[in-house]
Amino acid sequence: MKSLSGRVAVVTGAGSGIGRALAQQLANRGCILALADINPENLEQTRTLVSDSAGECSYHVLDVANASAFQTFAENVRRAHGAVHVVINNAGVALVDTIENMSYEDFHWVMNVNFWGVVHGCKFFLPYLRESDEAHIVNISSVFGLMSLPKQSAYNASKFAVKGFTECLKMELAGSPINVTCVHPGGIKTSIVENARVRTESLEITRDELLARFDEAAITTPERAATLIIRSIENNRRRLLIGRDARLIDFIVRVFAGSYEKILRLEKDILGRASHSTRSD
Hints:
The chain has a single domain, classed as NAD(P)-binding Rossmann-like Domain (Rossmann fold), CATH 3.40.50. It has ten helices and nine strands. The longest helix has 26 residues.
């Protein structure tokens, strides 16, 4: 995309983390924003942060898993701003549990937000993106859309699904004015684990220990992630890895596709093993 100034950009999950950082940086680049989040308090905080730099901007409380609500959201954005040029499907949730213990309710919750939220964002905005001379869709997968992690089956499944869906979308839109980027962030310092559903009975560590380990492993800030995502829009990149951890994992998985779980010792129960090792020293 040649320039973002004056373009209408939609961001879901804009109330915190990468979504909030995207809102701030897109506002600084002169975008007209349509920001959505399920949490009205978080969305209001984002409004306060972007109010000084944003021009025309609309805010929408939205559950991305709700198809009819998402369709109404898309219609309202088109009606309010007259066009749509960029859609960033960023909203996401996490679940920590084993496949054996996980409830269907929790599994559906993750898939409905992480996968169906992306599908809704693409399906309902595509007619409006086609009206534009130049447009871009960004779908946020994960490094765990490239490899799987124990006790993350629902999250893994949702992010692998986003990857497959987005790669198909790229092919179907080839030659059109709409470019598509699939993003695979590594560890980003957001509140996703803090807000995750965690079945502590499935862990050998406490929730606080889990949060501490995630915070230690998350090496990239939301601001850095947002900067790279915006660059991918400007440069029409089709695939983006965020963080040296994501680049390393991508390399290992490509080279050792059939054995990465053994090389990375994932079959040893990564969370429980780390906890046991700590208590044994």
